[in-house]
C-alpha cells in the first residue's frame, strides 16, 4: 500500500514519520536519544566503527543460511576476520583512548553495536576475546549497564539465533 518505500522491511514509525532502511532508522534513533556523539568528528568516528561492525555482523547474520558444507569454512573465516581485522581495531581504540567507551567518554551507538557483535561472535566462537583484554573489559562494562543487563536476561526481547524452521523458510523464500 506504499508504506514501504522500497517494498521491504524494516519500517519504524516514530515521531510521526515512517522510516525505512536500517541505517537511517538506527541513525535517527541514535541522534534522537543522544547516542551519536557531541559533534561531527565524533559522529564520523561512530559511523566508521559502526560500518566496520556491520561488515563483521553480515558474516554472522548470513551464517545460519549457509549450506551445511560451507559452515565450517565460513566459521574459520569469521574467526580469522574477527581476530585479525575487526577486534584489533577496537582493542587499539579502547587502549589508546583510555576511556570506557569507543568515542569521547560517553555511551554511543557504536558501543551498542560493538557489544552486539562481540556477543554474536562469542555465540559461535566462545574464546574469541582471549587475546583482547580491552574488549573483555568493555564487554563486561557494557553487559553490566542496567538496561543492557536487563535486555540480556533470559526471557528478554533479545532476538534468539534463528532456529531450523526459520532458516529453512528464509532459504526457501530466497531460493538459496
TrEMBL record:
Write the protein's name: glutathione transferase
Where does the GST C-terminal domain lie? 39-163
For this entry, list what GO says about its biological process.
Answer: glutathione metabolic process
Q: Mind telling me which SUPFAM superfamilies this protein's record contains?
A: GST C-terminal domain-like, Thioredoxin-like
Mind listing the GO molecular function terms for this protein?
glutathione transferase activity
Family assignment from sequence similarity = Belongs to the GST superfamily. Alpha family.
Q: Where in the numbering of this chain does the GST N-terminal domain appear?
A: 1-37
PROSITE patterns reported in the protein's UniProt record: GST_CTER (PS50405), GST_NTER (PS50404)
**Which top-level group of life is the source organism from?**
Eukaryota
Instruction: List the PANTHER family.
Output: GLUTATHIONE S-TRANSFERASE, GLUTATHIONE TRANSFERASE
Which keywords has UniProt assigned to this entry? Answer: Transferase
Organism encoding this protein: Ceuthmochares aereus
What Enzyme Commission number does this protein have? 2.5.1.18
